[in-house]
Amino acid sequence: MISKEQFLTIKRLKQEGVPIAAIARRINISEPTTRKWANMSEAGFDELKKDDIPYLDNYREFILSILRVCPQTRETNILYRLREEFPDFECRKTTFYKYMRKLREQTGFVQFTGRVTSLREESPPGYEAQVDFGQYRMKDMYGKPVRVYFFCMVLAYSRMHYVFFSRDPFTTKTAIQAHEYAFQYFGGRTQMIVYDQDRVFVVDENFGNIVLVPRFEEYVKKVGFSVRLCRPHDPQSKGKVETFVRYIKESFLAGRVYKGIDSLNSDALRWLDAEGNGTTNLRTRKPPRVMFREEAQHLTRVQFSDEGFSEIRSVSDKYTVRIDWSVYELPRSAVKPFEQVRVEEQDGMLLFYKAAENELIHKCPRRESPGGTTSYEGNSRKGDSVASNSFRLRFEAYDVAERFAEIVEETEPRYKNLQLGRMLTLSNVFTTEQMVEAMDYCVSIGICSAAEVTAYLIYRHGKDYVTKRISKNAYYRNRERAEEIRREQDGRYR
Length: 494
Description:
By secondary structure, the protein is α/β, with parallel strands linked by helices. The chain has helices at about 5-15, 20-25, 30-40, 40-50, 55, 60-70, 75-85, 95-105, 170-185, 215-225, 240-255, 260-275, 290-295, 385-395, 400-410, 415-425, 430-445, 450-460, 465, 470-490, and strands at about 130-140, 145-155, 160-165, 190-195, 200-205, 210, 225-230, 255-260, 310-315, 320-325, 325-330, 340-345, 350-355, 360-365, 375. It folds into four domains: about 5-105, no CATH class; about 130-300, Ribonuclease H-like superfamily/Ribonuclease H (Nucleotidyltransferase, domain 5, 2-Layer Sandwich), CATH 3.30.420; about 310-380, no CATH class; about 385-490, no CATH class. A hairpin with a 2-residue loop joins β12 and β13 (about 350-355). α2 (about 20-25) packs across α3 and α14 (about 385-395) packs parallel to α16. The longest helix is centred in the C-terminal third of the chain and has 19 residues, at about 470-490. It is elongated, with a radius of gyration of 34 Å.
């Protein structure tokens, strides 16, 4: 908008009969604009100046509070929020849009228009992260389908990755929790995070105006990062995390058996260390963890609550429990895989109780920094595998089990870990008495394997009972041998 002095000059020259084109050259503005001001009354010009920048500066901090959360919030939505918050607010749309353009230029809160895509120019360290969700259908130990859901975050500069799995679809609450885990894993947050317009984060889009879920908006303000939202069905807007979602499915989840959500998350941490963040990136030509050494220095620290907690966790098949991003091994003599334990924190110590009996089974210091594993020394036996140790501890009261393990190690030394591991899996769905009876039969004929035990259980308990505990594929693989055992036991040989 021109100044009052320029306006009066235009009016004076017009009265003197100077052509509009000549006035425009003298004032250095276009002819159509000059003609507009020349035809406007002085009272009209003064009215237009009333709602100029000085008035809108009174609302500057409120506008900035909106832009800090979501820089791409449209002007129409900001104007609506102003009128909603301040009933006496009055301003022409054209004036407000001009003010917003200047404000964005001054503060760097750029208005994203059209499709937002990942730029070829790399983000500076600590500036941008990208978030996305995924889901995958896998099979459990018994062949039954299981759907898992996962949260991904990728640091744009270093390509440092993070993934967190959930058995249930993510809600706003669990998505915020996943953010906490990610910030702990990275050691801080970036300045801005890019998202899809997912219902977990966004209430609605009304004619392009984005409204965040109140709980998520509150969390964003508390932690202090900015949000950038992509347009729907636009994967190019956050290509780095989209690529990572595919990478997780193809390189981590494909062919993996579901053994519990805590076990899956523990395995994911190990995979991230070895592959996800250890493989050379084609663009940077360096592994993400190498690039992360520089980016880590530019992340903003996040304050996490250090209050104690009490939670129920499931023991993995490796006799471990995951707390935050650290793994704690429990005594194999005290718990079984997939058994529930209650975890409490007291004075920097983690206390593990059997959930059902409320019995204290283990106590150890909580790790000071996220990541890593705290082992239980009593679990290790020299010369034995983890599977062998676990199997012997599970059936330590039965001599037949020890003999069964010895025969497996003698007859199938190459596959002993696999066989004893499968025996542990069977022991989770059949009773100890049933397993001991089957092993006694196997030892008596000198054929000791998980397949032989399965066949005996089919013979002994029937199809209806067994198929409720093992997969149908496992049943059909061992059905023929079960019939042979039946004929042998009945004394009818063909």
